[in-house]
Amino acid sequence: MNTARHKPSHALLREPLFRFRLIVLIAVTALFTLILYPNLMVTKLAYTVGDVAEKDIKAPKDFLVEDQTATDIKRLQAVQDVLTVYDNDTDLVNRLVQMVDGTFADMRALRQAAAERRSPAHGAAATPPAEDTRTGLATSAEEARKAFEDKLGIRVGKGAFPALEAEGFSKHIADAIGEILQKTLESGIVASKDVMLKDFEKGIILREVRTKDERVVRDARQFYGLDQAKALVRSIGQPALRDLDYAMANLVVDLSQRLIQPNITLNRNETEDRKHRAASEIKPVLYRVKAGEMLLREGERVADLHMLKLRALESQTKPEQFFLGTLGTAAVIFSLIAVIYLLFLERGLRQSQTPAKDILLMACMFLFFQLLAQALSSFLELVFRNSHYAIPVWTAVFAVPLVAAPMTICVFLGLPAALPFAVVTAFGAALALGNSLPMCVYYLVTGSMGAYWIRNCRERKVFVTAGAKTGLLSVILAAAAGCFLQEFSWTGLLWSSVFAFLGGIGSGVVTGGIVPLTEIAFGYTTDITLLELANLDRPILRQLMMEAPGTYHHSVIVGSMAEAAAAEIDECDITLKDIHRIAASFNTILNGIHHHRIEYVEHRAAAGENGKGRPHHGHSDRQSPKASQDLPEKDSAGSPNPFRRLKAS
User: Fold this and answer.
1) Which of 381, 475, 609, 628 is the most exposed place for a label (fewest CB within 10 A)?
2) Quick one: CA dihedral 451, 452, 457, 463, positive or negative?
3) Is the pTM of this model over 0.85?
4) Where are the domains of the chain?
């Protein structure tokens, strides 16, 4: 049972490799978070209208900007559509008629009380009071006129009151005034008809004061203005004036004109309240700014529209939300890398001779290609927006050679390490592109297949071949991604196919260019380098063939055996101990041959194996077996001759 995985945490922390892996994981998480959120390191610049932008500012996410002009236009239209509210006091005519009848009745009662006080039945013993406390009416003529005016609410001429008094405040006169008022107010009277006619086209709302019922009136000409109503009193009241003499008829008309009041009045407060509610119910007109859209370009003068977008972005990007989003992204990428490593990479790296270097290589490749993808996609989007051709901006991501990352890892660490690495790379690209699921699937499939097609890379042309295959696969996946994103069009399909194929070819080319640099930087040796070292034009191999052809032939045979054994190891289930034992055996043989050849060349003259001054052509027939066995015990450096130990074994 393997107990290495069940070590306590304090014991793991003491292991240098574990500490190194933990440091690399934290560093990768932090640096990748900075790549996604560069504003953590860059100070935000405050602009005002008229300033010159110092750098490009792009929208980090989708957000909404209020179109203030369009919003104001819609609110103004909503306010203009509100109908003016007028109150219709239908009870006004009844109150006026009752007031007239009551006033005339009080005047008649006052006259009757005064007549009773002047009658002989009361005699001199009666003390005439100044005012009748029971009725509350004045006794003198002047006080009676003032009381009459106060009750009616109008001014009555000095000649009119004696005329009414002479008629005894006849009920017939009161009924005539009431009939005129009722017929006049029945049609509706407004204080200012000119104001109402301004709303003639859209109409008004006529609201009953008592019942609060409302109705829309489109024709305002049916109502009388106050002056118009007064002018029409004589013609409207002609039937009621038929039984009165001319002087009394004129008096009735005058009193009716004075008593007429508008029963339709403008309710300004209610109208303003309705306009305010209508304006507040209009939602702001918003237009969407998409992620990656250029808000402000370097060298451009800041205008009001730029400030509107910047303020909208600042208002929607709160510091706590930004911090939580950054923290969540870091936690997700940390967990993903840790799980992928524990499930798929730990076993393979445990068998590696240089696990720390392998981990560092994968970390550097991941960060480098994520940064390259961010920079290249932003640059291509900027170029496409300024291009004279109608190139959809969303197709720029397909030209990014992100597939080169798992292809490079496959060249150095093999396919088992490249496939999990492709998962992490695809997930990181999806986060960088706004949590896009189609892009995650796109880079996962192309990265995995690109690594698969380059797994047996022994020639330089394999890079281009694998890139071409990846490009063809990318064309199909790009079309599927466009359909998923609902961006499908023939123009978009054409450009996405072109960029996807170029991205696949570019991935192969980038891999071919970055592999030699990685070999130099990290000290790796690929199969291509080994084949280049086996070139027969190299001086060391030409010297070996000329001076020791037998040893050269023996080395070729042993190399072929080692290659066949390696092929069998790939196909068969051979344990790690078997591999170590086979490798140790071949290492012993090769070391013995190597040291034998060196000692043989150094001591050729001393041993006299082929004679002085004669070129060496392998084991000569002139040399006896005894002389061949009499090799020096030690080499020129004083170390034991390994070839003698090899022969003895």
Assistant:
1) 628
2) negative
3) no
4) 4-36+319-531, 90-188+223-262, 534-648
